[in-house]
Amino acid sequence: MTRKRTSSRGRKRSSRTPSRFWRWLAIMLLLPTVVVALWLLWLDFEVRDKFDGRKWALPARVYAQPLELYQGRVVSVEDLRFELQVLGYREVGQVYSPGQWSLRGSEFDIYVRPFAYNQRQHPERRLRLQIANDRVASLQVVKGTSASVMLLEPAIVGGIYPTRQEDRELIRLQDIPPLLGEALIAVEDRSFVQHWGVSPVAIARAAWVNVRSGRVVQGGSTLTQQLVKNFFLDDRRTFSRKLTEASMSLLLELHYSKAEILETYMNEVYLGQSGPRQIHGFGLAARHYFGRPLTQLKTEQLALLVGMVKGASYYNPWRNPQRALERRNLVLTVLQKQQLLTAAEADRARRAPLGVIAEERRKLQEYPAFIDLVRRQLLSDYSEEALSSEGLKVFTTLSLSAQRRAEAALSRQLQRLERGYKIPDQQMQGAVVVTGVGTGEVLALVGDRQTKFSGFNRALDATRPIGSLAKPAVYLTALQHGYNLASLISDGPVKVAGPGGSLWEPRNFDHQSHGEVLLIDALTRSYNQATARLGMTVGLDKVERTLRNLGVTAEFDVVPAMLLGAIELSPLQVSAMYHSIANDGVVMPLRAIRAVETATGEPLSRYAIELDQSVDENSVALLQYALQAVVREGTGRGLYQVLPPELSLAGKTGTTDNQRDSWFAGFSGQHLAVVWLGRDDNGATPLTGSSGALTVWREMFRDWPTRGLDIYADDKVEYLWVDQTSGLLSGENCRGARLIPFDGNNRPLQSAACDYVENPVLHWMKKWF
Asked: Which residues participate in catalysis according to the annotation?
């Protein structure tokens, strides 16, 4: 009995063993299934979340101002040619399509592309215009609708990029040349339309090669897999990453159409590098390599871009032109075999050159210092993230012709000065700011002698003593407090006791004292002693108030030395001050931005002009006259060694102690430009404002059409003859008489004795009649 009970328990144990085995087997199979399912659900979420959301961080796109064309518009042949080159227009013998131009003598034939600007659509137009004496003499619309002012589209001049420095110009599939999509599929993935994200045949072939080599050396990637790799994954070449890639590709094809996948691929694919900036997508690549929109590329140019998908650096047409040419021609051969091109079309395309723009021309569109100013002004209204990710369109005040002249003048003149004064090569630095008088728009900005260098921006950040550029504020203060241009002031020695027993004793540049001089002559010749005495007489507090009224916001010590320029300002801050003088006493913030739009063209911001008449208009008119005298006969007279004497200009030189800083601020009726030269280590130079910065200004305006300065004042301002020595009233035919403007409320009342000088013509007539 005992043996039977034992045998029965054994049979029960053995019957439970198989069920336990199957239970554990089910658990072991179920667990990885659940893990895989969860993993696939997570991948599915990742795919849909990113693909349905904002796919890319789009940089803000920055545009120059559009060139306006109308009869009488001041523009030179060279300026218009340069604008067309930057826009990527092609010079041809016969104009027949948008984006082309020709020049015969001084007559332009331009076929303007359609574009959107300032909430308006501008249709394509063909223009014919004649330029004579740096003006548009005639303008005719050969094709398209006419308008009072014709515009060329604003050129893209830069962007504000995210940390990864990815840049792209988004394109829609319906806007892509059909041949591009067909060529991409023919070369990269012929079964794209049939497969579900992966190609088993291609994978099997690649797997066999990889197994034989013992590592991953070949991929069987479809276009979908390439997109997944670039869009979701990193560049690691492992089997696990390959499995993830295949799974995500299947999921992508499950949720989205072939058209959506192809469009995303065309915007994502990496196609080159421009410094730290990565060129992604065919839209931006077309402008990067060929300087024109994707829709205007020729067959051979499209073939080159498709060929570069395999390796943008390896087939770089600038560094490896022969390799790029062979790759392009291979693509053309594939297109011919796939009957996408006829034999004749393929043969013609193979004979064509690569057609990429010169690398030097690409740099024409690099304006790092100006973009830096735009970014800083935008940050007052937009976050850093919005600027670098939302694809904003920023329309700026940048003038391509002004920028070109400013860059060329600074680089060229610094080289000449270093040679002429035997200054060690590359020791000098400089900055230039050009603004439009009356608009406050920054037209050009250069922050380094290496004009395409994006490092330290001296135009904005180099705060240096301004020297004699401060003197006009002293004389303007005096003109508002009882002085006139003919007032006699003393240029005798000045000594001012300072703290700790120090002594401030300014001297003139020529180390001479000049006795009693007219106020206008003290400014014209930049006498330090006369200026210091005048400033202390009218009051330091009043001079400080004048500087503030002219737009100076920087902090400085209100001490006698400020009268001679112990005030540290950047070139942009100096420009703001002098723009107030050039603009008849009307103060306005300098602006680099006209408008901001969303990526789809919806308006976000308009930057209106803000005006403040903070300085007496008549006093400013008198100061402008004195600054005209500075360039006619004073420290700025070197301008007219090159510029025509009939061009009315005004300006002021500035030199600091030991000639560490060379300044010149000058203006016409249309343009104001401020130039600073010096050394970054604050070392001494052999240059004054006249011998240094002024020569850059002069070089910039050598052949730049600008409107002369007209002084505007009310009826109270009148011109009177005064005696050069005493400043008293005189007569036109009195010896030593000169004509000077006065405010009617503050003019000389007494007359000087007249030493009559007979008019030579009248004397000759008396002899004969």
From this structure: 188, 468
